[in-house]
Structures
1.
Amino acid sequence: MMRAQWLGLLLFLTSGCLGGADECDRGATRCNGGNAETCAEDCSDLGCHDQWQVSDVCTGAQSCIAPSDTQPFCAESLGKDALCAGSGNGTYCNAEQLVQCHDGYRASTRACGSVDDFGYAQLPGGSASTVCVDPGDGTATCIPVGAKVDSLCDGVKGPRCAGTTLVECVDQYAVSKTSCGSCSTQTSQACDTCPPTTRGECRGYLGDRCAVDEDCASGLSCHGDGSGQRTCSLPCSVEAESAPASGGPNAQCEAAFDPEGLPISAYSEVNPGERLSCIAGYCKWAP
């Protein structure tokens, strides 16, 4: 009787039931149930086996397509998109929407500034970048309202210093400008094969911590709020902006932070808060 039980267990283990039988050939791909799937190894406490796994989830505007020259993927166009020709996996603008291409097909179309159901930005520049700009070479992107082509950004991508102003450049547009007490940039490389990245450092901006007035950008002073914390700030008047009460937005404060009045976006190297206000007679970032 015991021998029969052990024989049954052995047959169970060797039959593949412990890990589950392979349901596909590893590396195979297909469209199934409206999504793209890849056959890959799946392991659990019971063992490993190859099974179909979703590799690309299609939205309601997309279909899963399986061109003969590439693996299945989600796309909005069932045929090649003429505007994607030559750009491969590039982008182009459709009014204020950014279109992403995939192997010559129109893969997705999203409004600049759009966010997902959890409030996370879906496109470059974040929710404040609501304008689509297209240089015509497959590198269209989203930028904030008010951003302009600036000679400071000729041949430059990323942050740079113009004196004590930190400028963020995207496709020859200055998408962010911040007045600083001191400005510097630093380039680093995470690995030998990684592309170098450059970050900007701005000290003494409106709202930055300070010890003396000289730590702050021109026109700002090192102000103590009574709690022992001192920040670079500026006297302001709510009435001058026709705001109804203390705590209202103040153009004088905004100009002291960003001389161009550009909204803070995901491109901004300095992001101390969402809204500058005139509080108790001084410019502060409202919570």
2.
Amino acid sequence: MINKISRTQYNEILQGVQEAEADLQEAEADFDDIKEFEVVDDCHNCKGEGRVEWGYGDPAHNPCGDMLYRDCPDCDGKGYIK
């Protein structure tokens, strides 16, 4: 016995498969890109972010009190030690 499915259900499944194939192609392209890099240890100061907290600055220019950041002086903002 052959299982049956409506055209609407078939089209929904097909759309999901096509989206999954597109995601897979994008992931494969990303993987090909990262194969070209050498992985090194993170900077011990900024933990690989490349920036460190700098303070809150002048309250007149930072009324919300958001933390300000600057490039890490140990790795020059790269996130890793040479």
